[in-house]
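Researcher: Let's try something more involved. This one mixes different molecule types, so please make sure each is placed in the same coordinate frame as the others.
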Amino acid sequence: MSRKYCTSLSILAVVFSLRAVGFPADRLKSERPAPRPEGSRLDQPAGSPSSFHTCALDERVPSSEGAARQRRVRRHIVVVVWDGMRPDFVSEQNTPALWKLSREGVTFRNHHAVYPSATIVNGTALVTGVYPSKNGIIANHVYRPDIDLNHAIDVEIPAVVKKGDELSGGKYISVPTIAELVQRAGGRTVIATAKTVGLLLDRQIRNRSSDSNGPASPLGEGERMKVRGSITRDNGEAQTLTLPSPLRRERRTNSESETKIDSQGAKNSVTLFAGKSLPAEILPWITETLGPFPPSHLQQNLWTTKALTDFFWKDGLPVLSILWLGEPDLTQHESAPGTSAALAAIKSADENLAAVLAALDQRDARGTTDMFVVSDHGFSTIERSIDLRKILNDAGFVAKTEFESQPESGEIMLAGNGGSVLFYVVGHDEKLIHRLVEFLQQSDFTGVIFTKEPMEGTFTLEQAKMDRPEPDHRPDVVMSFRWNDSKNQFGIPGMIDADWQRGAGKGTHATLSCFDMHNMLIAAGPDFRRGQTDDLATGNIDLAPTILRILAMTPPHQMNGRVLFEAVANLNPATAGPKAESKTTEATKDFRSGTWRQSLKISRVGSTIYLDEGNGTFTPK
Ligand SMILES: [Zn+2]
Ligand SMILES: [Zn+2]
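Model: All components are placed in one shared frame. Result:
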């Protein structure tokens, strides 16, 4: 993928309708039209009063819905995330299982991460369908003095999540995730992630399962799970576990609970994240057979995949499964995109996908399962590692990555996110913020600057979709590092400057580079067209609304993402295809010594906005 490729796709999408964007005529023909899926409501308008029911959740449709809909309907959703997978690495040779799946479904060729193009931010966007500004997770590392006065925090670690929920009445993530929504509608969900991100995909399990109206914190300790002990089949019939396990032991002592669980599949839902589980009692059941969560990345992915297919799918498929593989992200960080180790990591992700597909085949479930294989973001190679703290301190600022004591007015906390940095100015002194911004504008490493308050030569946090309603949660300045489309030593285009955490030559992401912002999505299953490509702008925020629509559920809140109608089976793209437009915004500032210029390119489909790329440069006089 070259820079030209990055831009040309969006330019094409600007003006033309879906048909004109370049679906070759032969590609528009489905190889084999999928039958109208029973229970799917993808081609019906959302929001009708009967939309939010459980007909697609393997429950009986209420009799008032009419006899025609009394039949049992089935739909399963399986999302497999390949962390950090660039779309240009998908090939018959690199990813044979994914390649084959793409022939059976739709390849989205203009797919977008949300900014910053980082894991936790995009994981949360994937399951909420809203921008970071609306769900609350605006970066992987932020400074929240109400949570930790002295350090920037990792937003997904359990202690932070617990505190965040306590402070916000359970709204650390401001809207429910699709896992939570499916469970509220009575469906079972399984989140299995090799990385820590899983906690944010469904952190509320303990609350819902504990029969308690209470504590705001979903991670409250000391509660024993009251209801566990059998797994419910996806058709609603209870299955008793045959494995000796803590669950089984508990079930024997609590027959009252057993009755409850048998009638509510949602209560068998689970979150498995980086070798931990919610509820915690589940974990020994897995480690008894699979052993402890292993230390190596590849083994961790294998372990997590097996936990999903061999344990959580053992007695039937849940309505929603999300498997998050940590590769190729981790290996690309340690080496770079395109190394033999990174290619091997991609191959291993493909093998895990193949295992998932085989498990579905074994259950004869491919005909009822819609698969989404997606990456959270793209990837780049680090051209220069920028020690911003030193650079700023040398220039007379007081910049810190931690406060040893009470923060003092005028000090600046830097929250490094790899390809982007968030700046928090203690006391928010306007003159100091201006001086900081002007310094960044005249540097040789700045790409795009976003500011809390409008400022000459910057964009606002609103344009980055990072403007939280709580003023204290907003950084004063956000900077995406500069990037270019030159190639690394393995011939892979996309070089960026990045923060101090990794050295030149290694890999990272989180900038507004098109190589970070464009990621992979392939969808296949009964609700999707076969053997097609979609060049319309799409994004991670579109998965949640699309999945809910497949499940005939109307979200309780307005989502920023859109339903991917153009990829849906049995719709005529000439009539159903939405149109895209794109626009580039510029901001400049003149200095005595030269001119700062930054740009941001966005695509819009309906009311959904996708950030394509952004960059900047200082031109001396
Ligand atoms: Zn990631
Ligand atoms: Zn990463």
